[in-house]
Prior knowledge:
Elements: H1 5-12, H2 16-21, E1 23-27, H3 36-49, H4 51-59, H5 66-71, E2 73-77
Antiparallel strand pairs: 1-2
Helix pairs in contact: 1-3
Amino acid sequence: MVFCYEPICVSFFCTLGQKITGIRVRRLGTLKKIPFPFAFVRYFLKILLGLISLFAIIFSKERRAIHDFASGSIVVLANK
């Protein structure tokens, strides 16, 4: 269940951290919630690559991490 918390929350709701910071993970282009399989791949790569994925943000023109590129997602500010 621990490994499903983030993918489930990202797919259907938002994580506690996303709620607090006011960000959401959405599909690139449509800005709809990402499907569970994509959220699971995103989470798996995020865990597998760790800081390497986050450092990619610095070198990306779109400011996206490797796990966001792989899952076709983007992090956006939430509508308040």
